[in-house]
Amino acid sequence: MIHFSGVAIQSGYTLIPGPYKNNLLMLNGYTFAQKRKRYWYCSKKNAGCKAKINMAEDGVTIREAVIEHFHEPPTYHVTKTGEYVFFRNCHLITMSSGKQLVYYKGHTFSFRNPSRRHAYCSKYVLKKCPARLKLYPDGRLRAATNTMEHNHPPPKLFKNIDGKFFTVA
């Protein structure tokens, strides 16, 4: 278990807007929700995560922390204005043609190279859409660029009985 105490740490975390009116504390990519003035618990506490942070009396300095998580950190996109926007992870879908696409926030992205580390909006060629994704080798989302700036509506996808997807114009 990763645990530290006794050493005051002032930097290394960021306060970001939460889904409700309270801020979230982000440390090492993980988010923590505030419970009382000095106590922050992992946002996945209800799922059983034991990570927590205890702040010093000043409310700014980390006094004690247990930062071992059993889950992946959430994915946030930082906009050009510095705003943090939460995104669910992407996943692969197979089209009826057999082509695999990345599905993310209602839009589809296609791979432009064999490494499958970069995916461009499927409307990149037709509409010059600037949205792009960077992926880890295992397919998890690493970074999202311009995904809030699609210049077209999302495709209308339907699923066949065999589990493959198709679009309707």
From TrEMBL:
Keywords: Metal-binding, Zinc, Zinc-finger. One of its GO terms (molecular function) is zinc ion binding. Coiled coil: none annotated. This is SFRICE_033349. Residues 19-71, 95-152 form the FLYWCH-type domain.
